[in-house]
Amino acid sequence: MVRTLNLAVVPDDVRSSFAPVAANYTRATFHTSTERLQEVLDLARPKPGDLALDVATGTGNTAFALAPYVRRVIGLDLTREMLDQARRIAAERDIKNVDWVVGDAAHLPFQDDTFDIYTVRAAPHHFPDVDACLREAFRVLKPDRDAAFIDCAPPAAAREVLHEVEVRRDPSHVRSLTVDEWVGRFERAGFEVELASARELDWDYDEWMRNMAVAPELAEELAGVIEAAQGDALAQLHPERRDGKLRHAYWHCLIRAHKK
Length: 260
Fold this sequence. Notes:
Blueprint: H1 13-18, H2 29-32, H3 34-44, E1 51-55, H4 61-66, E2 72-77, H5 80-93, E3 98-102, E4 115-121, H6 130-140, E5 141-152, H7 156-169, H8 179-188, E6 192-204, H9 205-211, H10 216-227, H11 231-237, E7 240-242, E8 245-259
Parallel strand pairs: 1-2, 1-4, 2-3, 4-5
Antiparallel strand pairs: 5-8, 6-8, 7-8
Helix pairs in contact: 7-10, 7-11
């Protein structure tokens, strides 16, 4: 079922960004929140006999959320250090029905029509070729089953401000898309989009920076970029300082896409 991936042909940006900070994602609020993980379960609608694939699994948070509800989960990620954290947590929690694979979302090392569920969360904005990744999702998913997809999706004006912050915080960031843009990409890949919505969060800027170990001087400079937003971007982001700490809006799309 698993084909070998030649990592020499895969861009190193993501691995270089996340390998040094892998442990941070075992405790990051957004990635580990029960409420946020429930969003994935609600989209994916897992069944006891399912084989699930969690792409860009990172430290395995989504895979662990799925594990009690399915037969088996495979968590795939480019960064070995992230998967090392996932293996450690699985052993500590005695979770037996998870496997870990080093792999690329654009070149999945699996046969066609293999999985009952495909999930990916807070990762596609790192994908250099989103369309290739969606085609691969469609290929490996069984007919009449669903992909559950959550990723950052700011409105257009806010995106232009956040893009500068994102790429300077993490050079592996490629681009965030709006919900409508994501829907178009899914449909071009062959999916039928059953549900697509945007969810806004009150974002903890400081933790967001800490997750990637951003230097304090740069973090303060990037905070200034957000606070200097104007017009529609300012109205959308509505940044404010609370007890000296920056909070602002941040958005994700929640998509369920069906393979007929």
